[in-house]
Write a structure and sequence with these properties.
The protein is mostly helical. It has twelve helices and no strands.
Amino acid sequence: RALLGCGAAAAVASSFNAPLAGLLFAHEVILGRYRISDIGPIAVASVSGSLVTRSFFGDDAVFIPPDIVDPSVTFFLGTPFMGLLAAGLAIIMIRAWVHAPAIGTRFAKNIHLPVWALPPMAGLIIGMFALAFPQILGVGYEATAAAIAGGYGAAFMLILAIAKIAATTLCLGARFGGGVFSSSIFIGAMVGGFFGAIMAFLTGEGETARIFFTVVGMGAISGAVLGAPISTTLIVFELTRSYETAAAVLISVSLATVIVQAVEGGGVFEKQLRS
């Protein structure tokens, strides 16, 4: 069981250049426990994964760290509302993604279609959908990085978030081999960017507000969906090197996680195991 944690820790640490977050993610989500005998091997795996990735790609493995310097104190007034938004979206995403495989199987049965025919049908739909929104394909790290860098408008980010939720639900329902980790990060960044545009209008802080809440939304929504508030906060801190941004994420993701736990009883991985 500890080896499962080692693999997860190394993957997170390698992807986000965040060995501390990888270590905590393995304990918080994969193992669901903190035990002294597990910390040693998981820490070695997490640090090793990060070091190997740095040797090939440098210090910025996935996202170029956003430049967030002295964010306005008024931003923190918006973090609870970001948390409420994250909680609502997380509940929708968890329910859709947990029940999608059963719904897909029932759909195939009702129209007398073999289950193995679902992936090519869904692939055709996703392919046509991606002609308009190619950003939804794959893990979406390129699009997430573009959102953090300010490459998308507010309305387009909201459209991409809705499209990614729909595409991920369809893929899971059709029994594609895929997960929800990267999707939740993608959706969180897009919704956070949209919320940041609203805050920019209200505060007059412009691009700083949009980038700030893109990162906060990424941490809040993914943390609430995955049931990993501490890990996602650490990912953001190791990504931005900003105490203020990490503190804002912690406020939003803590509020969102409490609501999700009260309503759903756990994150998406825990719900998938129960179902």
